[in-house]
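Onboarding guide, step 5: your first structure request.
Type a short instruction followed by the sequence, for example:

Predict the 3D structure of this protein.
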Amino acid sequence: MYEKNKYAERRKFEQMEQAANQGDAEAQNNLGSEYFFEAMGTHQNYDKAFKWFTKAANQGNASSQYMLGLMYYDGRGVRQDYDRAVELFTKAANQDYSLSQNKLGTMYNEGVGVSKNHSIAKEWFGLACDNGNSTGCKNFRYLNQ
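The system replies with structure tokens like these:
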């Protein structure tokens, strides 16, 4: 049973890799996630994650833009660069990607990589909340106290 599952997982990974190599942005994003989170039998590899997230982000994939933003924000596999992180988070946030909206709210609330601005933070948290992000809702309520 274990060998059968392992084979199926490997086959799924190969199909995803083939689609990614053919330019499928969703497959590229998924492959980046596999390498970032060490899933489907892959070893964590930030270089490969960065490669695939970049390909998908360049096609406008909001999830990949967010993940690249995180890599730059945390300095995972790349030199830490808050300006680049803000740029990528903003691209994803402008596509209503709630995780990016909440992250931008946090950055403005704390003044990390941007000038501290509670008004802008509240706007981002409100948008994240509107898009179903419960943490964004909590953060929005906190700033309204």
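Each response can be followed by summary notes, for example: The mean pLDDT is 94.
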